[in-house]
Amino acid sequence: MYSFEVDKPGSVEAAVAALQIEEAMALGGGQTLIPTLKQRLASPSRLVSLAGIAEMKGVSAVDGVVTIGGGTPHATVAREAAGAYPALAALAGNIGDPAVRNRGTIGGSLANNDPAACYPSAALASGATIVTSSREIAADDYFQGMFTTALHEGEIVTAVRFPVPQAASYQKFEQPASRFALVGVFLARFAEGVRVAVTGASEDGVFRWSEAEEALNKEFRADALTGLAIAPENMIADLHGTKEYRAHLVSVMTKRAIRAVG
Amino acid sequence: MSEVRIVVNGVERVGVVEGRTLLSGFLRDGLGLTGTHVGCDTSQCGACVVHVDGQAVKSCTMFAVEADGRSVDTIEGQAAPDGTLNAIQQAFQDHHGLQCGFCTPGMVMSAAALLKENPTPGEAEIREYLEGNLCRCTGYHNIVKAILAASGQDVAAIAAE
Q1: Which InterPro entries does this one have (chain A) (predicted)?
Q2: Which residues in chain A touch residue B131, judged by CB atoms under 8 angstroms apart?
Q3: Is A83 helix (H, G, I), strand (E, B) or coil?
Q4: Which of B42, B49, B52 sits opposite A35 (nearest CB)?
Q5: Which residue in A119, A147, B60, B125 is deepest, having the highest Cβ count within 10 Å?
Q6: pLDDT tens track for A198-213
Q7: Among candidates A104, A163, A117, which has minimal Cα distance to A138?
Q8: Backbone angles phi, psi at A85, to 5 degrees
Q9: Of the CATH numbers 2.60.40.2140, 3.10.20.30, 3.30.2420.10, 3.30.360.10, which one belongs to the domain with range B2-76?
């Protein structure tokens, strides 16, 4: 790692001020950033640790909306959201491994927007609102491609508000070495309609499978997807799977999610 | 450079660290507590697992300054002062839960964290909890047996695979 200073502000306001310094970067749980720094793929002059900001932690459920502080670790979400939003809690409880879940945070995951991360699919399928240090962003506007979001320089994800669907399921086909999603499908069924978000598959990052949503809004059963297919062109290809393999998995995992929701 | 105060295995330790000093580095190089192993340095292997405020974390993927003012437990604090092994360590010995021993500190610390959350985990729960701890010698079977035994459960029921 290159050398850097670490700031530990106690409030969002102080963190935003600290991030004004040139080449400063926010440090959430560090489960992605620290390995990145070790490989010298980033060289911040200063890290601004968000871990000491109490207002950015915790899970609450009010009037059908689950709000999670941006600095809340996955293990806490797995425990505390289990009653209000079980599919979201199950997703959080299957990220990485237990030690990673004790450090990694939802805000960090959404700010990084790894194309194979789990949380972006939940946020997009739930129609969540990303609350930042300066504004509120709808999930449909927030995710803008692989590792790319609507966040400005120095903007911090302080909370995420998830409308709780009538039923939901996250189906993850896990890449066993990294424990990231080779393909993950989050399906959320609301009174207004079904939303299907896919992670791990596309070179453009998380996306909504709108054809599947339309089909499921007409008829909510796995057979409704018959004849629908994802075009392999924009899928990710790597040593773990070809474009065609991932495109196929999207259908398989979506059908599993439909059956799980029932 | 900044000063950190960390209660390590019940004793307050003070050190001066760089921003980039990892908790694993502070423990090993700063305090000489080399029982915390660094296997991969990429947060995959789990040999460096310690407890921070009672929770399992990978000490190679946390900065020492982030542990300032907190309590850290390492493998060195697990046995009694006279060297008597704790129940988990003893079960690893009794059930041949280690061969080369490199992964063992992390395995024992992960097992301790699991048993605190779930005092009588089933075999599948143990295997799932150890997803972030790699062992290249044992094939995990005897580690799972050791953790079952440490939690007071019958180990005869699990057949070798």
Answers
A1: CO_DH_flav_C, CO_DH_flav_C_dom_sf, Diverse_Substr_Oxidored, FAD-bd_PCMH, FAD-bd_PCMH-like_sf, FAD-bd_PCMH_sub1, FAD-bd_PCMH_sub2, Mopterin_DH_FAD-bd
A2: 97-98, 179
A3: coil
A4: B42
A5: A119
A6: 999 999 999 999 999 9
A7: A163
A8: -145, 80
A9: 3.10.20.30
| Alpha-carbon span B106 to B138, nearest angstrom | 14
Question: Among positive and negative, which fits the CA dihedral A117, B136, B126, B110?
Answer: negative
Tokens linked to B56: 């399992």
Element at A218 (helix H, strand E): helix A210-218
The closest of A100, A109, A262, A95 to A187, measured between CA atoms, is A262
In the numeric block, which tokens belong to residue B118? 């779930």
Q: Which residue of A lies nearest to B114 if distances are taken between CA atoms?
A: A98
B159 — pLDDT class (breaks 50, 70, 90):
low
How many other CB atoms sit within 10 Å of the CB of residue B156?
7
Q: What share of chain A is helix, strand, coil (3-state, %, to 5)?
A: 35, 25, 40
Q: Which residues of B touch A3 (CB under 8 A)?
A: 18-20
**CB of B8 closer than 8 Å to CB of B74:** yes
Superfamily of domain B87-150: [2Fe-2S]-binding domain (1.10.150.120)
Residue bearing tokens 């490989």: A39
Bridge partners for B6 per DSSP: B13
Which of A30, A102, A179 lies at the smallest CB-CB distance from B56?
A102
pTM for this model (two decimals): 0.95
Q: Domains in chain A and their CATH numbers?
A: 5-49 (3.30.43.10), 60-163 (3.30.465.10), 167-261 (3.30.390.50)
pLDDT digits (tens, 9 = 90+) for B19-31: 999 999 999 999 9
What amino acid occupies position A100? V
Flag if B66 and A37 touch (Cβ within 8 Å). no
| Domain parsing of chain B, residue ranges | 2-76, 87-150
Which among A100, A105, A174 is the top mutation candidate for probing chain B, defined by the most B β-carbons within 10 Å of its own β-carbon? A100
**Among A5, A35, A99, whose Cβ lies nearest the Cβ of B19?**
A5
For residue A50 the two structure tokens come to 């968000």
One-letter identity of residue A137: I
pLDDT for A98-152, tens place per residue?
A: 999 999 999 999 999 999 999 999 999 999 999 999 999 999 999 999 999 999 9
d(CA B133, CA B127) in angstroms, rounded, equals: 10
Beta-bridged to residue A143, according to DSSP, are A149
B116-149 pLDDT tens trace: 999 999 999 999 999 999 999 999 999 999 999 9
Rounded Cα–Cα distance for residues B86 and B68 (Å) = 27
